[in-house]
């Protein structure tokens, strides 16, 4: 047949002539399918995500990130995608791509929780465990797709058994005499996974632990996994909503219930962040770390993509010992920059300067004079 109108984008985008794609693909030096995908993204951005499209036009974000947002939201209705557009437009100009995609995931869930629950049930049918072929050294790869909660428990148990083998040389010698002295944690974790596949060996290990002090044995036998779950009061009141799990991303409440079903849950009081806490020592106490992680959940270095609690807390204003004239209260959540170790080293040794101009805002100057502002919305020229 002749030329036809086809629908490439999501709800609300105009139809296009299908035979125009061939010449456009030639002009772009790409395959027809690649051109088709790019056109769908462009149509979605122009007609369904206008606020995000405005950011793209100013070159304030990377085009591939915007295209990924368009692709992720294509199945949403025209009205539903507006909620995503508003949230993404506030973040895409400064936040790292990973943070933008987390926002998109959360907003997709929020727009239609029932549809997302149906997708969850559909994806559960894809759970599987697959073994790769054996290589020429006798090793194989094990791939598993399983519930996030089960994966967390497997990871914690593997980590705990690996730590036991690392800490007890006699235990290691008795069961794995061929291991070198410089065995790595990664190797021990692989060996620990093998223990889980041999219940009798694992039972023997637990019997060995029974011979230790009862309190110590109890602590040693129980693997632990720490997950930080944030819930809005409205979600708790209605039983419907989206939770933010720092280590896993956005989850609906039913997923949270499944995740925590067999766990010991610790409820922590809501922290009042309107005030500050300061101490008169160099090290940041646990309460300051907790408050800072909530205030600033990401690495404060310009354009960093890391969202983790495994950071150093840096003093933006260098700490001065009180014995040599330093003022009181230098260490606190009012003066703390979370930095990954590499960025902390760069700030300390490579000539960067940083000024904390607000509790969550940092003005950076690079060794060659590049200036950037880092705040909750990301990194921006200053």
TrEMBL record:
It comes from the Bacteria. Residues 313-382 are annotated as: Disordered. Residues 354-364 have a biased composition (Polar residues). It comes from Nocardioides lianchengensis. This is DUF222 domain-containing protein.
């Amino acid at each position: 047949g002749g030329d036809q109108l086809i629908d490439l984008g999501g709800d609300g985008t105009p139809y296009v002539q299908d035979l125009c794609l061939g010449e456009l693909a030639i002009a772009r030096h790409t395959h027809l399918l690649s051109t088709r995908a790019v056109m769908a993204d462009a149509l979605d951005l122009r007609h369904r995500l206008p606020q995000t499209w405005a950011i793209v036009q100013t070159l304030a974000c990377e085009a591939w990130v915007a295209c990924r947002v368009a692709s992720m939201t294509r199945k949403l209705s025209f009205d539903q995608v507006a909620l995503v557009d508003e949230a993404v437009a506030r973040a895409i100009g400064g936040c790292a791509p990973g943070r933008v995609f987390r926002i998109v995931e959360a907003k997709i869930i929020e727009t239609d929780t029932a549809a997302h629950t149906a997708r969850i049930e559909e994806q559960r049918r894809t759970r599987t465990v697959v073994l790769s072929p054996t290589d020429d050294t006798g090793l194989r790869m094990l791939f598993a797709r399983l519930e996030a909660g089960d994966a967390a428990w497997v990871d914690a148990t593997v980590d705990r058994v690996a730590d036991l083998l690392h800490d007890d040389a006699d235990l290691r010698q008795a069961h794995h005499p061929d291991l070198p002295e410089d065995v790595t944690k990664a190797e021990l974790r692989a060996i620990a996974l093998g223990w889980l596949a041999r219940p009798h060996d694992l039972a023997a290990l637990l019997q060995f632990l029974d011979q230790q002090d009862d309190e110590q044995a109890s602590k040693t036998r129980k693997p632990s996994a720490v997950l930080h779950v944030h819930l809005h009061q409205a979600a708790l009141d209605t039983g419907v909503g989206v939770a933010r799990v720092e280590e896993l991303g956005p989850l609906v409440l039913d997923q949270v219930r499944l995740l925590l079903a067999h766990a010991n849950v610790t409820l922590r009081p809501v922290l009042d962040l309107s005030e500050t806490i300061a101490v008169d020592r160099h090290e940041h106490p646990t309460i300051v770390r907790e408050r800072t992680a909530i205030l600033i959940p990401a690495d404060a270095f310009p354009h960093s993509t890391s969202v983790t609690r495994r950071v150093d807390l840096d003093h933006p204003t260098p700490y001065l010992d009180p014995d040599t004239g330093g003022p009181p209260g230098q260490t606190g959540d009012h003066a703390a920059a979370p930095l990954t170790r590499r960025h902390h080293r760069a700030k300390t040794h490579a000539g960067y300067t940083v000024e904390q101009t607000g509790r969550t805002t940092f003005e950076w100057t690079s060794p060659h004079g590049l200036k950037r502002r880092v705040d909750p919305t990301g990194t921006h020229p200053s």
